[in-house]
Sequence to fold (281 residues):
Amino acid sequence: MASRGSYPHPVLDGSDDVSSEFLVLNPTIDVGVDHVSIMFDVRCDDPDLRWLLENGGADIAARWKCSATMRNGQLQLESTPLTPDVVRYSAVLDHQQLDGLVTVFVTSLATEVMPAFSFSRQHHDYGQAVFEIGKGDLLANGGTFSFDAKKKYDPMSPPLESCFRFVRRSDNKRFVKVNTSGDEFVEVSFPPKVYDDFASGFAPTIQMSTVVVPALMHALEELKRSDGPAPTPGGWRTTISQIIEDKKLGGRDSIEIAQAILEDPIAAAFKQLTSMGAFDD
Fold:
């Protein structure tokens, strides 16, 4: 029997406290532009824990922690049963909270007080002992999995990235649209299907040259028409004007300025297309 002084009752995990399985399987991570989608399966063959999960006496909890941003929290899980023993869980995290390594801790916690609880498969050293379980007490520990939250699509490093918001709009039926009327950021809106393809993170240099370059050019033209940055500091006009000044790009055409700020993205896109065999006969 496992000796873990922090647990005054049997816990279903990798030890021999309980002769059942509670395993996290197949973690899948999809790193998009604005969100990270997380999916994993939990296999539990313990009849007591399964009964509690099905009848509201326990729940699956997934706590996350980002080592770079020091942010942490609980995933808001949605569940889909796959088999009697396996349930799939999914959740979405705001990418702005994440950078670098993120670790997810999967457990099962009691959701109610149980004054006389026992596992029918608990180790024989426990005998017929029963235990008082409080709300929030640990019943099972599935361990952890980790992933790298660095954006697959990250064409713009600070401060330029703060100037743009890429959004999915159901009322946008066709074409990518750019809205420079806001003071804080330039909004680039997509039809839903186009946004989903854009957010997949595939071929980032091509995304940059086909979306970010024209959006930045639009913003540059608006900046010229407005004759300089807005009086309110910190908005996209102030930031882009400062970048132009720092890089000594004043007086150039918008298409040249956009390519210089984004470090020659069109050439990078053609290089990526060539590496993908796009021009092979």
Q: What stands out?
A: Residues 78 and 163 are 33 Å apart (CA to CA). The first helix runs from residue 47 to 55. The chain has a mean pLDDT of 85.
